Each structure stands twice: as C-alpha cells, then as structure tokens.
Amino acid sequence: MAICTESLQHPEAPAARKMARRYELHGPVQGVGFRPFVYRLANTLNLWGHVWNADGRVFIEVEGSIDALQAFAHRLTAEAPTPTQPTIAAIQAIPPTHAPNFTIQPSPTNARLSAAHRFPLDQAMCDACLNEMNNPENRRHGYAFTHCNACGPRYSIMTGLPYDRERTTLAAFPMCAECAAEYGDPANRRFHAQGIGCPSCGPQIHYRSTSGDTIRNPQAALIAALDCLRDGGIVAVRGVGGYHLMADATQDQAVATLRARKRRPDKPLAVMVPWHGKDGLDAVHELAELTECEAEALCRPERPIVLLRSKAKQQASHRLSAQIAPGLHEVGLILPYAPIHHLMLSALDRPLIATSGNISGEPIIINPEDAEAQLAEIADGFLHHDRRIVHPLEDGIYRRIAGRMRPIRLGRGATPLIFDLPQTIETPLLAVGAEQRNTTSLAWRDQLLLSPQLGDLSGFAAQQRFIQQTTELPASVAISARRVCHDRHPDYASTRWAKASGLKCRAVAHHHAHASALCAEKGLVDTDTLIFTWDGTGLGSDDTLWGGETFYGRPGAWRRVASFAPFLMPGGDAAIRSPWRLAQSLAWACGLPWRATTATNEERQLLQTMLERGLNSPPTSSVGRLFDAAAALLRLVENSTHESQAPSRLESVATEATTDSKLYRSEARNAGEMLPVDLPIEQDSDDLLRVDWRPLIRMMTDETRTVAERAADFHHALAHLIHKQVRLLRQTRPIEAVGLCGGVFQNRLLTETAVTLLAADGIEVLLPERLPANDAAISFGQIIEGLVPETNPGRRIL
Amino acid sequence: MAHGNGGRRMRELIQSLFLRHLGNPWLTPLTDAAILPHRLPPDHDLAFASDGVTVQPLFFPGGDIGSLAVHGTVNDLAVSGATPLYLSINAFLEEGLPIEQLDRIVGSLATAARANNVHIVAGDTKVLPQGLCDGVYLGVSGIGVRPRGLLLGAERIHAGDAILVSGPVGDHGIAVLLAREAFGLSGSLASDSASVLPLTQSILDLPGLRLMRDPTRGGLATVLHEIAEATGQGIQLDEGQIPIRPAVRSACDMLGYDPLFMACEGRVVAVVSIHDVDDVLRRWRALPQGQEASRIGVVVPDHDQIVVRNAWGGKRVLQPLENDPLPRIC
Ligand SMILES: [Fe+3]
Ligand SMILES: [Mg+2]
Ligand SMILES: [Zn+2]
Ligand SMILES: [Zn+2]
C-alpha cells in the first residue's frame, strides 16, 4: 500500500487531551476495512494518534479524554466490521505524543514484519454493495464487481503480502478519477478498499458460447448466459475462487445432462438459492428445514454450502429436481456471494446448481483458457470475467452435528487458516497432509498456517497444485522450512514429495495425526485423553491399515487401547470402490449365505480364492469400510461412483427410520424395547481390546427386518459400542472427556447418538469444530505430532 | 529325481536328456567350452545378454519356463537391436522334480531355440536339495550380433517423440498369476511369451528409432518409468490407446491390479520420432504378433512423471510400484 493518509483536523483543541493508550489487536483484521473503521471511530470520538499494521497485528495509539478513550475501547470490538472479531491482546498507557490528527500509517513491507501477516479472506458481497448494485441511480448499477472494504475478494486475488492493491490482480485495472477519489476519502466506505472498481475502470464479464462468439457487452453477456440456463443449458461461471458449472436446479433434464456430461451419476450437487426476503433466506426456507445456527452459517461472510434437511413438500415454484441429491435426505444449499451470482439469481428467480467447474476428480478450474479447453464437452456457454484468480478456492461445506456447525470442507472465506501457537518454535516445520483432502500446514515462530484443501493427489493437476501450494505457502511468509512431517503411507504423493524434498522427514501414523489435530484444536495437549479415530483406511504405526482405533494419551504419546478385529479387503482400493466385495468378505467371514447381486458367479469365485490365498487382500480395522459393507449388505450401494456414497446413503436411510418410527426414540431405548446389537470386546495378546463385528454383519443380513431398521440399528450399535468401550476403559484410567474424530464422525446420526449416550454418563465429548473431522485435518495433526520434542508437554498448544 | 551329488547315473540321465533335445555340433562333445567359429558379419559388434528365469507354475497357459527362458534372452538381445546367435543354459533343478517335467521343459527350450534360429552351445546342470529352487531355475546367457553404428539409447529421446507398443499388455503377468493361484478362470487368458525378434528386426533401419525395451517384470509402467528417469522427461499416455485384452482388464479389475504393471513376455515398447510412427505401425501390424500395435503416448518436457490421460481429459499420475499397492483411499 505504502500510503499515508491525509486526515481530518479535529475541532477540539489539544489541551483537552488527558491521556494516551496503546492497543495491540489480534484477529483476522487485514483487508477487511479495519483500519478505516478505527480511523472513523477515532475521528468520531475526537481522538488523536495513529493506527498501523505490523507483524500480522493492528497497533493503535490514541490520545484524548478519558471518556472518549473508554468509549473507544468499547466500540473498537463492539462495532468492528464483520468478520474481524478482533481481540485486544494488550493495552498500555503511554505518554501523549501530541499528534496533530489521527492517521493510518503505511504497512511495513519488509520480510521480517510481513512474516506473520494475516491472510485476508474472501467475503460475500455486503448489503450496502448489493443495494448499490440494485440501484438504477448508482454508477455501479448492475456492475458485477461492486465491492467495498467490508466485502469482496481477498486471498483469491492476492499476489503477495501485505494485502494492498498493488499486490492483487486488480493492479491491472488503474482506478478512474471517481474510484480514486473514493479510495482516498477516509469517510468513504471504499476508503482503501483494494477491490475497488466501477464499470468504467474495473473488471468486466463477457460470455462465450460454444459456437465461439464472444459477447463483450456485460448486459448482453449476462442475458446470453441467463437464456442458456433457462433453456436447460449448462454455463461455466467464473466466480471468486474458480469456475462453477451452473444449471437450472428445477429442470430434471438440465440436471440429467450435467450428470451425464460430468460423469457424475450420483454425487449430490450443491444448489445456489435466490436471495429473497429481509435476511435473504426466504427461498431457503421453502426448500429445507433450517435451524438458527444453520441460518447463521448460510449468511456468514464466508458464505459456505450448508447441508440441510430437504423439505418433503417443496413449493412448486422452487421445487428442486429429485436428481440433485438422489437417495439422500439432505441437500447442500448456498446463498449468492459474488455480485454476479446475485445478478444471475435475481434475474432467473430459481435455484441453480452450483457445482465445482472441473473434470470429475480434478481441481477447480480458475482460468478461462483451461475452462474452455477442459469443460468444452460439459458447458454450453462460458460466463468469464477478466479479473485473474491467483489462489483457487472451493466453496466451504458445513453440517450441523450435535448442535454446532462443523466444517466438512474449509474453503473460500475460511482458508488459509491461521492458528496461534503458545510458544515460539525454533525451526519452521512443514506438514504435507494426506492423499485425499490434502492440506499443507506450516508452523513457524508462534504461528500455524493451514492451506486451502486440494482433492485427491493421485490426479496430475492436483499434484501440480500440491507442489505449487507447498512451495508457495512458506515463500509467501518468507519462511523456509527445514523439517517436514508426512503420512506414514509410502505411496501418497505427499510422502514422495517430502522424501524427495531434502528436508528432514518425520513420518506420522495417519490416525495419530487425526487424534492430535483434535487435541490441539481443543487445547488438550497436557492431559491424557481418550480419542476415537474412526475413518477409512490409513497406515498405522504397525504398518497395517487402521481405521477403527481408540487411543489414550496425548500428542506424541498415543497408546492404542482398542480397535476392531481385522477383516480382509479383497482387491485393496478396488474393494473401496465396490463395497459389495467388502460385504461379501464380511458375510463369508461370518459363514453367512449372503450374495452380492451385481457380481457374477465367476467374480465371486475369484473373490473367494483371493480371500483364501490372501492375494491383494490386506486386513483392516476400518469402521469406514464397515459402513461401506453395510450399505452393500442392504443392497443400497453395491458399487459406488463417488467416495462417500455408501455411508451417506446408509445414514439417510437410517435417519428416515429414526425419524419415522418410535423405535429409536430414547423412551423406547430406556424402556428396553429396543436393544441395539451388542458387539463383544475381547482383550488380545497385545493388551488391545478388539471388537468383534460379526453380530453386526449377522443383523444386517437378517431379512426379516426392514432395510431402514437395519440401517438405523447399525448406527445405534456402533454408538453403543463407543459407550461400552468408554465404560470399559474408564475402569482402569481416568476419563473425563472423549474425543471423536475421523471421517466417520461426519455422520450425524452416529455422532449425536454417541454424544447422547456419553453425556448421560457425565462425559464431555470433543468434536472437531474449527477443522473438519476428515483428512483435511491431517497436516495440522502432523504439525502437532512434529512439535512434540520441542514443546513442553506441560503447556497448552492452543 | 534323486539327489545329484555324485550320482553318476543321474548325471548321465540328465546329460542324455539335455543332449537328446538340444544336441548340436558344439554342445554334443561336452567340452568345457564351446568353440564357436568366428564368423561375425562385417561392420557388426557382439551383443551379450544374461538373464535368470524363475516362474511359478513351471507350465502355464501360453508357455513354460523353458520357452520363457529362451524368449527372455532372445528378447533382451532383440530390443538392443541385435540378432541372437548362441545361448548358454544353466539349469538348477530341485531334488524331486519329476523327470517327465524336466523332459518337457528341455524339449520346449529346444523348440523355442530352433524357432528363433539360435543354438544352445553351452550349459550346466545342478541338482539342489528340496526347497531350494522351486522346481527349476534357469540361468541364460546369449550372444548376438548387432550392426555397428546402430544408435539406440535414452540420450536420443526428445520431447515430442512417440511411445509405441507392439501389442496388448499384461497378458503374461495375469495368466501366470491366475495359473499359479489355481483360479478357475484362466481359460481365456494366456501368456504372450514369444520372441520379439521379427518385430525389432522389422524397424531397425528407421532413422527415427530411438530406443526399444521389452516390458517384462513390472510391465509397461515400469519400463516407462525407467525411460522417464533416464531421459529426465515425462510421458503422457492416452489411456484409450493402450491395448489391453478385455479378459486381462476384467481379471485385473477383480484382483485390484493395474494391467500396466503386469509383465509382458512378447511385446516391444519403442520410442520413435514422430516422422517414423506410421512406418513402425504399418510394419508391425503386418506381422502376426503386431496386429494390435498402437501409439500410446508421447514424451513431454514439462514434467518427469508418467501421466495417463483418460477419455474425458482427467489425468492421473502413474506412480512407480514395487509390491502390492496399499490402499490409498481413506
Ligand atoms: Fe483419515
Ligand atoms: Mg529381460
Ligand atoms: Zn461491500
Ligand atoms: Zn472506476
């Protein structure tokens, strides 16, 4: 930025100054108009001094009357623009400096000071900007890049730190005289808004149809895109963090076309809902049940996708196609966040599919050239814009579990995420995460930075992005790591990268990372805790495939106290893509006559031989795989086309049963009417409790019961198993809190049932809230494990 | 078969068995060294290759350890651009191997050698105690001649060069696996074990021929990784162009294996200048073994990995693998 502002002279004479204070504030206070807010507040209260950013913090020195200073201290946090939520880290009395006015000081740009700078996060369009855009009198009427210093793109357009216009992709758009005046006027809400622009100087949209014509006129471009959508077409829309593929969510044919072209037959699609009513939520209410915390999440400046329970009877005007989320009781809804979304949805007045613009399994596309090349056979038109995207960001996803909103994916507006470490570490530490939902974390001094999430690193493009991100992250804060933590799995792309990096490597068992991530999030690194890590498959410290583990201990010192009896996965990854193989393996292990319907006799015979000979049939203790098998045993999903298909479907079916019948109500349980299947637990030779899953498999194949009942009972049996394990383990060690993490605990029915049972015993349940329960948290957990030798275990990490 | 140590009659039996099948002017006198007439064609160099052959089961659909041993060394010489002339065979026999099996194996060795016009001119047999060599191990060495001035090597490969394969991949690996594990469905699957000499000889004169390899252990993927490592350049494969028999594909799907990692014993991978691609394909396709020859990919300069592009444009990285892959999906 390198600016120093002109400022207003206070009417009051310097004689009225009584004292001076110095404030240090923490929180996400960059690029959110916080300094201009401080400036206006100081002027309102007749205070002198200055505000500046340094080292990722905001410092304020103010002088004036006692009353004014007290009001300032209060209003500083009470009236701060969302989502800054600043915390006052220090207040100090200082001698008055007799400054002539109140000024905003330039940001220091030298490397040492910028090292800890907060990354400003992208924010949804604010109400004031929306009103301007909708106002025919305003010069930004209909302008798709209407932003102010309280809203708009940030990290997505940032080319360097600190966040200032010259280090954003808007540097390519010199301001016109009017915008420059707004930018320089401390009283204007676009005072130093780095995203400022207008129709005469800023970025613009344009439309390209598959016939190759480009429509440059913004109004005509928008109309062409809307016409295409009305006709059931698919439009690739460049937004904040990348492209969306959009289509009319009310037209079955449009949804079917998108599914066929994207080769995504079953995976649920996110839906963007028009902004209606005072709080913008009227149209959402028509489509889904909404609790208060879900409504709050939908409206956050972060503007994520929220998984909501679909309304059975939707109003005809906004009825979603049944193909949006086939077989599921929930639908992912999101409100418009970029101005272009508001323009499109208010004109069409109907919900639109808004799914990531990519080839299935690949990262989100950010450039027009890539979009036209890679989405040529999917999209009927391209609504581009000419503001370059630097950092790809997908929409975040949240789900309400046990009364709180929990991230399933952290994305735009939430990443990169910064944690404060309580103490300084000596050598910067990098952690490169898992293979899927890959994130990179960097810890240096007293900071931890977590990258946005990538998809599956087996893809070439994802790997390229991983390498770029893992290189850029330390460079962006002028840090070079000398140590790297990676997953124990030798074939993960991230592990290979770490081993070839020349950095000092430390391998972390997958589930130890899961457990440590949860502990660190909850600040529990100094007491022993019991943590259930239930997920898919990851490599354990004994080099077998874990996924149903219970640990007791603390980061760096985990003891595996319980697990599941191992079962075989014939075909390895192939068994995960075809859950019938797991089901067949488990059924045979119980001596049951169950037969997969989708398999031929020959395939079953081959499977049997594989199991007998142990050919490519690794043993695992994974609960995620039990969920896969259960969905196949009920013939809900014998072959899956996307990874969470089997467990999602199972949970949906079970949830309907739980809601529809009294069978699973707590009164019924208390009355002993419904006893869930009991799973025996036995101590094996290594002093490890092993759960016998066979009664579960027998129950699942009991065709005298309905599919829904069995699905519900499956969840309840596992929840009761958690309860039973805790009671058993509590006999020999103190347990006050129990953590539940790993992808399996994204299952609401299981998690909430377990929480209810444990709470009845007075046990506090720890669930991930800042980070997802899934593998996106692995890099964070790896850092925490990697810190252990350097950290005094008596201190809290977070 | 009885223990071999000092068993004079057994030695005689084995010698007569080998001689009966392989008898030729150089081998028959049982001298300590074969004295070969020095008749190198002018402007040729000697090529010398060596291979150890083990396989279970010893007899499998499409071949046996005997023919496999001959093809292995013939093919190593052939892909180097040489014409094989002489082989030596060392046989390590496990005590208890039925004599009829040995007879079949040696007979198969002889047939394969004759078919490729190579002579087995030296050899030795050892009988090892039970449990030491899994029936039979064969050590094979071969000498051939190669036109002087023939330039083949990774250093000749440039970005833009095409990757060609002479036929469907994975047949040998999956056929042997299914035969070994006694699966009931090896019926439609047979090893591709064969000499690739006709294929390699047919394209040796093309100036744009950079390198040939036979994708044996570790399959096509492993050979491509070796090429990428030697050149420092990447390879992009077009998944739809890689010939794989449907039976091989479905067996691999069931077993959870990638056919690109399954061994071939009768295929050639060639790296060829873009200008000679059509000639290679035309000549290969004219041969019975090369009818399904295909251009499968291209050498690319922007990375050093093997990347497989699928029909809808997705690209996955083919990581090098040594053992059974551990599941990566969490
Ligand atoms: Fe995991
Ligand atoms: Mg060889
Ligand atoms: Zn705004
Ligand atoms: Zn302007």
TrEMBL record, chain A:
Residues 20-106 form the Acylphosphatase-like domain. The active site is at R35, N53. Signal peptide: none annotated. The keyword Zinc applies. Residues 219-413 form the YrdC-like domain. GO terms for molecular function: acylphosphatase activity; carboxyl- or carbamoyltransferase activity; double-stranded RNA binding; ligase activity; zinc ion binding. One of its GO terms (biological process) is protein maturation. Keywords: Hydrolase, Ligase, Metal-binding, Transferase, Zinc, Zinc-finger. Pathway: Protein modification; [NiFe] hydrogenase maturation. Its EC number is 6.2.-.-. It catalyses: an acyl phosphate + H2O = a carboxylate + phosphate + H(+); C-terminal L-cysteinyl-[HypE protein] + carbamoyl phosphate + ATP + H2O = C-terminal S-carboxamide-L-cysteinyl-[HypE protein] + AMP + phosphate + diphosphate + H(+). NCBIfam families: hypF (TIGR00143). Involved in the maturation of [NiFe] hydrogenases. Along with HypE, it catalyzes the synthesis of the CN ligands of the active site iron of [NiFe]-hydrogenases. HypF functions as a carbamoyl transferase using carbamoylphosphate as a substrate and transferring the carboxamido moiety in an ATP-dependent reaction to the thiolate of the C-terminal cysteine of HypE yielding a protein-S-carboxamide. Belongs to the carbamoyltransferase HypF family. This is Carbamoyltransferase HypF. It comes from Halothiobacillus diazotrophicus.
